[in-house]
Amino acid sequence: MSTMKSNLITRAGWHKLDQELKYLWKVKRPEVTQAVSEAAALGDRSENAEYKEGKRELRRIDSRLRFLTKRLDALEIVDHHPQQNGKVFFGAWVELENEAGDIVRYRIVGTDEIDPKLGYITIDSPMARALIGKQVDDEVLVKTPSGVKEWWVNVIQYQPFED
Questions:
Q1: pLDDT tens sequence across 29-71
Q2: 128-137: Cβ within 8 A, 24+ apart
Q3: How far are the Cα atoms of 80, 92, 94, 142, 146 from residue 158, in angstroms, in the given order?
Q4: Domain named Transcription elongation factor GreA/GreB C-terminal: which ranges (predicted)?
Q5: pLDDT tens sequence across 77-110
Q6: Which of 18, 30, 80, 96 is 20 to 30 A from 159 (CA-CA)?
Q7: CA 118 → CA 80, 84, 115, 121, distances in Å?
Q8: Cα separation of 14 and 113, whole Å?
Q9: Half-sphere exposure of 142 toward its Cβ, with a 13 Å CA cutoff?
Q10: Which residues are registered as beta bridge partners of 93?
Q11: Residues linked to residue 148 through DSSP beta bridges, in sequence order
């Protein structure tokens, strides 16, 4: 199995990264730059904790800005198409059930959007790979470190679940 990250992302995921980039560039970086120049004006930089911390923060921001700029260029936005309805594809919300009656819900997203609290799993995960192309009532076999797990597809939708 390749460890290559896919470059797929939902439109909402792309916008979230783009917003972070804009915030860092237009708001956060200018604030920190201003704080650093004010700290520098106080004189001796070797003893100046605010100056040193500000410079560290600027390096973190610049590093994140470089990452986001490159990542946003590399990402491919995948939009939902109506012909995907009824089958699991990238961006789908899926409800699964096992023999014990345990129910889990996942959304298949890109690696930049993973969020376990929301049930967002990467397209590169064993679960997502097993789900792609499946339909409601299909059996899904997922290879896990503790053996093969068996699930059935209850619901496939391209809108968030409403609880």
A1: 999 999 999 988 887 777 888 899 999 999 999 999 999 999 9
A2: 131/88, 131/92, 131/94, 131/106, 132/88, 132/89, 132/90, 132/108, 133/87, 133/88, 133/89, 134/87, 134/88, 135/86, 135/87, 135/88, 136/86
A3: 7, 5, 9, 22, 30
A4: 83-157
A5: 999 888 888 999 999 999 999 999 999 999 999 9
A6: 18
A7: 19, 22, 5, 9
A8: 9
A9: 23
A10: 107, 157
A11: 143
> Token digits for 26?
């237009």
Residues counted in the chain: 163
Rounded-to-integer distance, Cα 18 and Cα 74, Å: 13
Phi, psi of 144 (to 5 degrees): -125, 165
* Nearest by Cα to 99 from 155, 140, 147: 140
Which amino acid is present at 163?
D
Question: In the 8-state DSSP scheme, what is residue 116?
Answer: G
Show Cβ contacts of residue 64 under 8 Å, excluding neighbours closer than 6 positions.
Answer: 20, 24
Instruction: Classify residue 126 as left (phi > 0), alpha (psi -120 to 50) or beta.
Output: alpha
Q: Is 104 helix (H, G, I), strand (E, B) or coil?
A: strand
